[in-house]
Amino acid sequence: GEVQGKHRTGYHFQPLKNWINGGSCRGLHFPHSPLPFQLRIQFILRSYKSKLAGPMYYNGFYHLFYQYNPKGVVWGNIVWAHSISTDLINWTPLEHAIYPSKPLDINGCWSGSATILPAGNGPAILYTGIDAENRQVQNVAFPKNLSDPYLREWDKPDYNPVIVPDAGINASAFRDPTTAWTTADGTWNVLVGGRRKHRGVAFLYRSPDFANWTKAARPLHSAPRTGMWECPDFFPVALGEKKGMDTSATGDGLKHVLKVSLDKTRYEYYTVGRYYPRRGRYVPEKTSADDHTGLRFDYGNFYASKTFFDPAKGRRVLWGWSNESDSKTSDVPKGWAGIQTIPRVVWLDESGEQLVQWPVEELEKLRGEKVEAHNVELKKGEHHEADVEATFEVPALDKAEQFDPSWRDPQVLCSQKGADVSGGVGPFGLWVLASADREERTAVFFRVFKKDDGKLVVLMSHDVDVTNSPTVVNMFEQVDTSVVESFGAGGKTCITSHVYPLQAVGDGAHLYAFNNGEATVNVLQLEMWSMKKPKMN
Ligand code: DQQ
């Protein structure tokens, strides 16, 4: 692991305040506990300022469009900035793709999505314009010149806006069109996020030609008391296969996923369900809680995510935006900042009930020197310096603590049973971004419990322990942010955290394996690589 120093100008810093107030402990249960415990942890490089608008792959290039304020350090003046890449890792910036230019988007070009049109007709972008009356309207844009491999310039046809809020729609809660998909007769379908009182809504619109859109009689889906649904994402996933599917794919061998970003709580949840194209309805399965208590892509700092189908590698790629806080008072000292997480491949788990995520393989290009450790035995209280793909094995589980059925919220449990609270089986795991004296450290760890029926429950957590005080923001000018992204249980449980160490930076950043539980744990394998710097804009 490596903490990157400041690597380009115009790079704003983030204070400690919000991150510390934001809670440092997160976790959850794995419904099915796999053994041995596999864990992949990444210290990733800060990659982008600001948040995602719409990613896509077209003609050999990955395009990242993101919400950006060219004028200042706070959210505002939103345009679609544009970078391209051939490998999702090294990025080249281009001129802004979409920016306020007409009454239909003069107050901002907000989130949306790209759709690749069939028959060589290139990509189209649907995005939310904030119009001259401050209404949220949906506009379409096309590349000015399809033979430009970079697709630098985008045109907004005069027939825009293509979707306006009708009398039944709240014009300030109507945004973020999805990637469009086709149904049987070639009809286009798209979702727009919204809210009716406290009910979150995914409005459905249909079009024969991508230009004329009509609202369906009923929304595709909605759920009570979830508030505004921002950045909806709706896509098919293959049954029993890792391969990704085009957004328009249909058939028996698939299910659908609906993800929404909750403005109210600033986190995302998804359901797995069935899509009925003719009825224009999506029905989550019983195993998918649909009241925002269910599954999340990530239990850490992760929002406004999007997926896209990558035909070059036959995979669906998920990208999230990670930011500390949306509050203006903190944005000012912190600067306009935010991170795109490393893109993750996403597919349906064998159970067909939840998604699995794993960082794109291209990330491995950045791997430098490798360090390996095998079969290290960790007795209680022991720690070994190492640096990160780790596999732990617990030979005997009889010391597992009893699971109290009243424990409902893994985050609460995690805050009571942190990495230093000794237990039966676990806590064991890794301290990352740790100073040599381990005063500063972020624990990524497991703890195993036994239920009355003999089943095991595993808690995976991040526990951040940074000794510096939030009042010394100015001292950190030289230090870059680090992000810890963890993928547990082969990618079923993901946690993203921001960590702001004072000592544990550069050569001062260490990694240790630790065990604070009674049961001995074997580190079957621990591999670690230093990470090289990509070309980042
Ligand atoms: N941010 C965008 C909106 C979206 C929200 C504006 C997500 O389109 O709803 O920058 O954080």
UniProtKB/TrEMBL annotation:
Record key words, sorted: Glycoprotein, Glycosidase, Hydrolase, Membrane, Signal, Transmembrane, Transmembrane helix
Span of domain Glycosyl hydrolase family 32 N-terminal: 54-359
Keyword Transmembrane applies: yes
Chain ranges of the Glycosyl hydrolase family 32 C-terminal domain: 362-530
UniProt KW Cell membrane keyword: no
Any GO BP annotation: carbohydrate metabolic process
Single GO molecular function: hydrolase activity, hydrolyzing O-glycosyl compounds
Family membership noted in the UniProt record: Belongs to the glycosyl hydrolase 32 family.
Protein's UniProt name: Uncharacterized protein
Organism name: Colocasia esculenta (Wild taro)
